[in-house]
């Protein structure tokens, strides 16, 4: 399984802040140079690699002398990111250039990958860069992102970038060996080497960020794995606190590997990876059963509508026991509320125009 990830044509490698930047805000240049050498070796073997790199806020905070690592406020984080991103891109470009590789910078926000057209534009750019032998270095555009339009961590960003790039694998380099069955600081904690399916038991094993420098923890990594594996992309977590971390992972296989599921269609993979939800449709048990059989959500199964959303916005479909699906609404919130609980043959009279077949069509829906 590890050999398959190492040999996949396109691989996304995510680097956390605590690996790249010291607690004092200095770049771990020697470590980064060793990773650049790993990337160069992979490139010579025919593998295309894109990097999702944290570190801009940590680097900028030091230069601006901001408290709490630049995370005391949104404004501080944005200022730190704007300052640190220059230093981050420069050090990546220098280390990759030393190995004969050209770096490119891409900054994205959540909206860039939630909007279908912008998603496809990003995909075209990434594909062209990789085909030219360039190493894209990608980060969230924290200088303009707000709480409402943020990925929130680069683990989930890496999973989404893998979808955009058409990658077959993701490697999250972290400050831990992988997913453990309990807090790894506890006696007897066991590393989970492979996860065939992400269920409630797997999610319960996730903990928080240990470094205090980044925004992600094991919870975000498991969420990233869910996004990636649903799109048919394998994802691994490995300890990056060694020189040549990519080569070490390939040699030892130590880490946690989440196996890829059967790939969804491109549109459903994009939809399943989206993170922002504009509204909620609460449904009854009968609708839950129908959705499980691959059917569309009809108005009769809806109990109530929450949120303000337009036609085409992503909504969560929630049954008696929680979220059962996500999809693109066929109606705006006001019309959806008017139709909730009504039979399909009543819709035309209620709305005053020819209705659509469903509140959420099965072609624009993914089960949770």
Labels describing this entry:
single chain, 368 residues, alpha/beta, eight-stranded mixed beta sheet, five-stranded mixed beta sheet, 15 helices, 13 strands
Give the neighbour order of strands across the main sheet: 3-4-2-1-5-7-8-6
Main pleated-sheet profile: 8 strands, mixed
Tally of extended strands? 13
What series of H and E elements makes up the topology?
A: HEHHEHHEHHEHEEHHEHEHEHEEEHHE
Helix content: 25-40%
Number of helices: 15
Radius of gyration: 22 Å
Separation of termini?
A: 26 Å
Poorly predicted sequence stretches spanning 5 or more consecutive residues = 208-216
Structural class: alpha/beta
Describe the global form.
Answer: globular
Q: Indicate the mean pLDDT.
A: 87
Strand content: 15-25%
Question: How does this model look, in words?
Answer:
This protein has 368 residues and is an alpha/beta fold. The chain contains 15 helices and 13 strands. The strands form 2 sheets. Strands 3-4-2-1-5-7-8-6 form an 8-stranded mixed beta sheet, sandwiched between helices. A 5-stranded mixed beta sheet has the order 10-9-11-12-13, sandwiched between helices. Strand 11 (314-319) and strand 12 (322-328) form a beta hairpin. The longest helix has 24 residues, at 74-97. The chain is globular. It starts with a helix and ends with a strand. Residues 208-216 have low confidence and may be disordered.
């Amino acid at each position: 399984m590890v050999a398959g990830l190492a040999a996949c044509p396109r691989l996304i490698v995510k680097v956390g802040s605590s690996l790249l930047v010291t607690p004092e805000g200095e770049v771990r240049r020697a470590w980064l140079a060793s990773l650049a050498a790993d990337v160069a070796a992979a490139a010579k073997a025919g593998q295309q690699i894109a990097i999702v790199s944290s570190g801009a806020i940590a680097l900028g905070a030091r230069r601006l002398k901001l408290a709490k690592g630049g995370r005391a406020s949104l404004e501080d984080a944005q200022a730190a990111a704007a300052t640190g991103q220059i230093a981050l891109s420069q050090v990546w470009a220098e280390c990759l250039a030393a190995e004969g590789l050209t770096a490119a910078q891409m900054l994205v926000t959540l909206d860039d990958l939630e909007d279908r057209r912008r998603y496809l534009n990003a995909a075209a750019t990434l594909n062209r860069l990789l085909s030219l032998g360039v190493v894209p270095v990608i980060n969230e555009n924290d200088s303009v992102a707000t709480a409402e339009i943020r990925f929130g961590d680069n683990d989930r960003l890496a999973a989404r970038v893998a979808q955009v790039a058409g990658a077959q694998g993701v490697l999250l380099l972290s400050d831990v060996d992988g997913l453990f069955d309990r807090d790894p600081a506890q006696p007897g904690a066991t590393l989970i080497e492979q996860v065939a399916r992400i269920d409630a038991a797997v999610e319960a094993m996730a903990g928080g960020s240990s470094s205090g420098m980044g925004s992600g923890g094991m919870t975000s990594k498991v969420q990233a794995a869910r996004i990636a594996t649903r799109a048919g992309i394998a994802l691994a977590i490995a300890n990056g606190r060694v020189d040549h971390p990519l080569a070490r992972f390939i040699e030892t296989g130590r880490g946690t590997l989440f196996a890829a599921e059967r790939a969804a269609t491109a549109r459903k993979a994009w939809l399943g990876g989206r993170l922002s939800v504009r509204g909620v449709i609460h449904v009854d048990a009968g609708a839950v059963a129908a959705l499980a059989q691959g059917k569309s959500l009809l108005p009769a199964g809806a109990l109530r509508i929450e949120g303000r959303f337009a036609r085409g916005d992503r909504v969560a479909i929630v049954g008696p026991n929680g979220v059962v699906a996500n999809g693109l609404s066929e109606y705006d919130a006001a019309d959806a509320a008017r139709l909730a609980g009504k039979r399909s043959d009543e819709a035309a009279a209620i709305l005053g125009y020819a209705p659509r077949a469903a509140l959420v069509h099965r072609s624009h829906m993914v089960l949770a």
